[in-house]
């Protein structure tokens, strides 16, 4: 099939490359000419394991091409995939201006009947609006081509995007007729051994499924984060609680990690967008409002652990930070908890020495004007002379760190672990003050609070 993918971000570039890998003729288009220039040299504009190699392979086989000429992209393919960004507006609603501007271009340049597949995450009703815009422009041009709209939300995870795309656990497709369903089935058949993994639904349900899935995952994270705070003061251990919960097949083990709160390009904006969609039709999604609130609190809760340790005196302190990307395996800094924490450390007068294996280039763009932030390739260098180490992203290399070297480099042997990558008992043995999430904190005050709980229960029964 000849496919043009509009937008070469994480979704457009990865899916376009994977469609080429499966034998389609793919033209990826973007208004960012510099990005296209780099792609034509085989350089990926962001880090995603294995992507650059797959781009080069498919480009050399002449199945994958790049262009900044949007008209060419619209004219040359029978299927147009919209994969542009849908960021949050100030009020939390989805900014659909990029999607709608693509719809306008499609209307302007369409030269035959086309399938228009919306891959961007869009609120329910958007595909219909895209069709209306295209048809309005076609009418104004006095032409009458057929527009077959498809909703095909993307579920790839940054850091594992190729695997998710080439071997999808499920494909959701919203269609309006059998003909389009057959075309999409043919397109996705090479990706799945079992076609029952491709779920065909109506367009509205497809659009909603994407938000519902992300909202559910965000809910699990916020639930665990809130629970972790209770664990901290009662003496329970959130990691063991998680293990026990995850063994229940009704619950499953995924997305139950307590930490510094979720971030990234999807969860924060998608949760907000769903809340806003509901509000627009006079409905309040109170669970999701709490999910969002708990997430904000969790960033602050972690920051407060550091602040309390230093008795509120962060002025002049140097904080080493391991991890900037919102999760391991990506250089994506959108809504990264690390950025929010850096902002708070700076506000309270501290300096930050941050290290990340991949995200430094993006971080330099965002933080170069901050004189109190230094960025390091080597995560050991970031420790030199720091008053504390704060771990924000669970990169695998941090787990294998030489903790004796960490101890020798830090001014104080204290680690705040926002991702629970070490065992408290081992850290205590090594002589660290180790403060993590959802566990007895290893500090005198918290220990005392923890033993109050059984006493309170006992008193209740005696009285
Ligand atoms: N990033 C993810 O992990 C992920 C996962 C699933 C779904 N999504 C959804 O996919 C969509 C795209 O996300 P992303 O992270 O890939 O976005 P992105 O911001 O990384 O990339 C968007 C690209 O679109 C280009 N663009 C904007 N307007 C254009 C136009 N008129 N014509 C051509 N190109 C244009 C931009 O230059 C940019 O390169 C969003 O709706 C997002 O919610 C993202």
From TrEMBL:
Highest taxon of source: Bacteria
Stretches assigned to the UDP-glucose/GDP-mannose dehydrogenase C-terminal domain: 320-424
UniProt keywords, alphabetically: NAD, Oxidoreductase
Catalyzed reactions per annotation: UDP-alpha-D-glucose + 2 NAD(+) + H2O = UDP-alpha-D-glucuronate + 2 NADH + 3 H(+)
SMART domains: UDPG_MGDP_dh_C
EC numbers: 1.1.1.22
Top EC category: oxidoreductase
Gene3D superfamilies, sorted: Cytochrome c1, transmembrane anchor, C-terminal, NAD(P)-binding Rossmann-like Domain
InterPro entries the record matches: 6-PGluconate_DH-like_C_sf, NAD(P)-bd_dom_sf, UDP-Glc/GDP-Man, UDP-Glc/GDP-Man_DH_C, UDP-Glc/GDP-Man_DH_C_sf, UDP-Glc/GDP-Man_DH_dimer, UDP-Glc/GDP-Man_DH_N, UDPglc_DH_bac
UniProt pathway annotation: Nucleotide-sugar biosynthesis; UDP-alpha-D-glucuronate biosynthesis; UDP-alpha-D-glucuronate from UDP-alpha-D-glucose: step 1/1
Family from the record: Belongs to the UDP-glucose/GDP-mannose dehydrogenase family.
Name of the protein: UDP-glucose 6-dehydrogenase
Originating species: Bdellovibrio svalbardensis
């Amino acid at each position: 099939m000849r496919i043009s993918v509009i937008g070469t971000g994480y979704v457009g570039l990865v899916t376009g490359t994977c469609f080429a890998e499966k034998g389609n003729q793919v033209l990826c288009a973007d208004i960012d000419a510099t990005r296209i220039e780099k792609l034509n040299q085989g350089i990926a504009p962001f880090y995603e394991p294995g992507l650059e190699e797959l781009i080069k392979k498919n480009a050399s086989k002449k199945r994958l091409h790049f262009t900044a000429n949007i008209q060419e992209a619209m004219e040359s393919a029978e299927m147009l995939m919209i994969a542009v960004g849908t960021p949050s507006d100030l009020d939390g609603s989805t900014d659909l201006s990029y999607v709608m501007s693509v719809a306008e271009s499609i209307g302007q340049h369409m030269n035959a009947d086309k399938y228009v597949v919306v891959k961007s995450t869009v609120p329910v009703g958007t595909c219909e609006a895209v069709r209306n815009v295209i048809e309005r422009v076609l009418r104004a041009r006095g032409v009458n081509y057929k527009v077959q709209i498809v909703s095909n939300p993307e579920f790839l995870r940054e850091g594992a995007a190729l695997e998710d795309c080439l071997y999808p656990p499920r494909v959701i497709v919203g269609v309006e007729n059998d003909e389009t369903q057959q075309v999409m089935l043919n397109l996705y058949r090479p990706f799945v051994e079992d076609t029952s993994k491709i779920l065909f639904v109506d367009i509205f349900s497809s659009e909603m499924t994407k938000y519902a899935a992300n909202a559910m995952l965000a809910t699990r994270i916020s639930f665990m984060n809130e629970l972790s705070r209770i664990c901290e003061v009662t003496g329970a251990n959130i990691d063991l609680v998680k293990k026990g919960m995850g063994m229940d097949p009704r619950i499953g083990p995924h997305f139950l990690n307590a930490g510094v709160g979720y971030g990234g390009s999807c969860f924060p904006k998608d949760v907000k967008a769903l809340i806003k969609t509901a509000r627009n039709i006079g409905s309040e999604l109170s669970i999701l409002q709490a999910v969002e609130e708990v997430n904000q609190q969790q960033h602050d809760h972690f920051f407060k652990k550091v602040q309390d340790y230093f008795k509120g005196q962060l002025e002049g302190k140097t904080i080493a930070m391991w991890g900037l990307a919102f999760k391991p395996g990506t250089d994506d800094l959108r809504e990264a908890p690390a950025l929010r924490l850096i902002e708070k450390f700076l506000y309270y007068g501290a300096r930050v020495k941050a290290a990340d294996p991949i995200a430094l280039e993006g971080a330099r763009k965002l933080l170069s004007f901050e004189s109190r932030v230094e960025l390091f390739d080597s995560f050991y260098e970031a420790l030199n002379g720091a008053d504390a180490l704060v771990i924000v992203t669970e990169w695998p290399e941090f787990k294998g760190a030489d903790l004796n070297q960490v101890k020798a480099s830090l001014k104080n042997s204290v680690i705040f672990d926002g991702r629970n990558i070490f065992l408290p008992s081992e850290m205590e043995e090594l002589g660290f003050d180790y403060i993590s999430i959802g566990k007895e904190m290893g500090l005198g005050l918290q220990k005392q609070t923890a033993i109050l709980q059984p006493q309170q229960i006992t008193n209740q029964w005696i009285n």
